[in-house]
């Protein structure tokens, strides 16, 4: 049986989900660069032929570590689904002569390089400047038009995003973003291969979205993501995922599969994503491309990644379209030629709809809860106000232990302050939006109050 080295780090689809599907296609050797969730640890030991944790190895150079471990186990492929390990795994695969994202992987990770490539290829995107110092941010802010968004070049999950509305806010935003990146690194949410990545930023103009011109129903956010894969250099779109409106500044609250766009609109979005992905020159990898939807049919590419979408995007696709992207991609790396869709799948191809909700301590308008609460997964599932035909579960490995105080939402820290992750199945995409909207309003009434933390959040 073929052997795969699975490199685990923070982010991506739940490791318990992904590891199960890789193990169904190969003998798996696990290299864990960050701690495994408690709910996964025992199962990983049973599923894998070997488990090496970061603490067990002399890390040294990360690419060397991955390549050496792959040689030791005789791996036929090396895979990761984590944003923070994509570049290192791609380079290790190149050294080993194995399939991977290729030398261009860094272009799909460093937002400065990504945006520069798109600028040369004429891909529509917000105006931007790369910045690495406070002085460079000052200079960039004088060249761009307010409001501006400062974001870390190597971040994920909206971490360290800061909106700047006037020149007076430039330096405060700079200090806050840098502090959040430093804190995120201590939690394992940071680039693992590139030294000093936490010091790299871009600042961009904020373009105005217009969801109501793209969706018939209410409650949708003004951007979508095109989920896909690159097969030997050829981009293969799989489907589109939609969003609910973000929480300020731009923290994702919920993702919905499929995005309920019309056929013509979907074709235009996929064509833009194709241009953005192909400009990067990737070889073999999953892709996740985010596109902002504006008025009068305007669109801008926000970013792409050389991996599948995180949170529950991949499980949602499997539930709705019956495609095991993790297993199929494993087959691709092992030269088994999986049957990728011939075109991007649409709502007409779907069996129902699915969505995932990040639980943050804010209401539907993004305002903080009036008091502190403790996380209780069973109470959420039991009391969620769902419509007929909908079911809800909680993703244990992506949620806090029951009884833990829900963190106060920090706009700069983004998803780092989440309490839980919920997965919902419904009959149609609009039902997912409806149920999540109701659940967000109900959560402060469902979750027990935390008497030890006082009243004010």
TrEMBL record:
<keyword id="KW-0436">Ligase</keyword>
<feature type="domain" description="ATP-grasp">
    <location>
        <begin position="115"/>
        <end position="334"/>
    </location>
</feature>
<protein>
    <recommendedName>
        <fullName>ATP-grasp domain-containing protein</fullName>
    </recommendedName>
</protein>
<keyword id="KW-0547">Nucleotide-binding</keyword>
<dbReference type="Pfam" id="PF13535">
    <property type="entry name" value="ATP-grasp_4"/>
</dbReference>
<keyword id="KW-0067">ATP-binding</keyword>
<dbReference type="InterPro" id="IPR041472">
    <property type="entry name" value="BL00235/CARNS1_N"/>
</dbReference>
<dbReference type="Pfam" id="PF18130">
    <property type="entry name" value="ATPgrasp_N"/>
</dbReference>
<dbReference type="InterPro" id="IPR052032">
    <property type="entry name" value="ATP-dep_AA_Ligase"/>
</dbReference>
<dbReference type="InterPro" id="IPR011761">
    <property type="entry name" value="ATP-grasp"/>
</dbReference>
